[in-house]
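ugh ok fine here u go
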Amino acid sequence: MLRPSFQRFPESAIGRRFVDLVVRYFDASFVDHERVPRDGGALLVANHGIFGFDAFILGALLWRHTHRLPTWLADRNLWKTPGLAATLDWVNAIPGTPDEAVERLVAGDLVIVYPGGIFDSYKHARDRHKLKWRNRAGFARVALRARTPVVPIAACGVDDMYRVLARDPFVGRVLFGDRRYNLPIAFGRYGTLVPRAAKVTVHALAPIFPDGDPNHPDDVERLRSYV
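structure:
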């Protein structure tokens, strides 16, 4: 269920300005947006950009073209980041547990998942424009359980917002006990952390209607690899 304050935000004066600002700043466009269902549950499976700023673009485009507000599946460790938990809750993000995702889809929500997670959003410059999903198949099992369509989302240009030089060797280990969370050392506009005004084009691919048994590895792999 959408949080009331988040549900009202896009209709507010500040919300409308925010959506317009994001779309204008990145000259963002949404190709074949009509493939995203206007009602009922659907799982949007997308690629991620550095620091995850692309989520603001996808959210703005979804509201502008479909008038739908999604539920975001996020890495549960993000709630441990100081000052971030309240924001995640407010924008209707939830820890990416399979049961919760299935429940939201069956209830008719639009749910967005980034299978690459931290591997996609913290990738090095040499991996720009490459999916870093590591054969993750959780989204496929969720879709098979919920029996809702999967809409692959290809966000082009999101890896051009920053220039990534290296990865910090300490922060991730200190905060989360895992070096995969080590922050990228990245530079955006004018050498700051403000993202560059890269042209972003989001493509909605044809919906895939899951068929198979979520407990059967071959059925799960078939859907995962097809997406």
